[in-house]
Amino acid sequence: MDLEGVAPGLGTVVGLVVALVVLGLLLRWTFGHQRNLTLPTDDPDDPVATGLLTEVSRAPGPDAARVLRDRLRAAGIRATVSRPDDGGYAVLVFARDVADAAVVLGRGSRG
């Protein structure tokens, strides 16, 4: 049986290995870890570290915070509840919704 037609030649194998090594190096260079970049740290201007969210109200307990959150959601404002380290429960919305949230929450407190 003649294996010369079935087995690849040495040049083919070496070429394939070189191509894979070059491809691996290119991928590592493109998508590799960039250790020279610094990781983002906490924003010193954001005392509660809520990122894109802004506190619009604070409630003493989880049930009261959920009522406020649900009132905002019913008005079409995305809201969430967080428990800050300094106590209570914070109701948070995106910065662009702060004015609308104040109107909705103010309207609910008047009756």
Features:
transmembrane; Alpha-Beta Plaits; Preprotein translocase subunit SecD; membrane; alpha+beta; 111 residues; single chain; transmembrane helix
**Which residues form runs of ≥5 with pLDDT under 50?**
none
The overall average pLDDT, rounded, is 80
Mind describing the biggest β-sheet?
3 strands, antiparallel
CATH class of the domain at 53-110: Alpha Beta
What's the tally of helices? 3
- Helical fraction equals 40-55%
Shape: rod-shaped
**Corresponding CATH architecture of the domain at 53-110:** 2-Layer Sandwich
Tell me the name of the CATH homologous superfamily of the domain at 53-110.
Hypothetical protein rpa1041
Report on this structure.
The chain is an alpha+beta fold. The protein has a domain at 53-110: Hypothetical protein rpa1041 (Alpha-Beta Plaits). The protein is built from 3 helices and 3 strands. It has a 3-stranded antiparallel sheet with strand order 1-3-2, with helices on one face. Strand 2 (79-82) and strand 3 (89-94) form a beta hairpin. The longest helix has 22 residues, at 10-31.
